[in-house]
């Protein structure tokens, strides 16, 4: 179960990558530790699966940094479940979406950039919920 969860996180959109990777690493250490009995190890595994499952059901915005033109830049990230992941510069001047197929960021057009700001505000409870129309990229089924 641990190996399948580890592979799943490695193949997923790399949002909160450091946090999620550390969680999986610590889980692996706990599983081989003689300190925990089998039922505690199983509970820890199930809790990790539940946490990963919850990511699919959330719209989340959080601050972070990303390299833009070889400079570490402060941004706001927006994650729509496991469907899409975006960033927007703090000044709102540029936004990109993660392209899982190519493993990199694709710059959004001006209209999508403006809509992303609305979505980030909604995710942080600053804006009023409303319909947002912007680039989700190609979503395979």
> What is the average of the pLDDT values?
89
Q: Number of DSSP strands? A: 5
Reading the helices and strands in chain order gives HHHEEEEEH
Strand content: 15-25%
Would you identify the regions where 5 or more consecutive residues have pLDDT less than 50? none
Tell me the overall shape. Answer: elongated
Taking all Cα atoms into account, the compactness measure Rg is 17 Å
Give the end-to-end Cα distance, rounded to a whole number of Å. 25 Å
If strands are numbered along the chain, what order do they take across the biggest sheet?
1-2-3-4-5
Enumerate how many helices there are, as a single number: 4
Structural class: alpha+beta
Query: Which range best describes the helical content: under 10%, 10-25%, 25-40%, 40-55%, 55-70% or over 70%?
Result: 40-55%
Brief write-up:
With 141 residues, the chain is of the alpha+beta class. 41% of the residues lie in helices and 25% in strands.
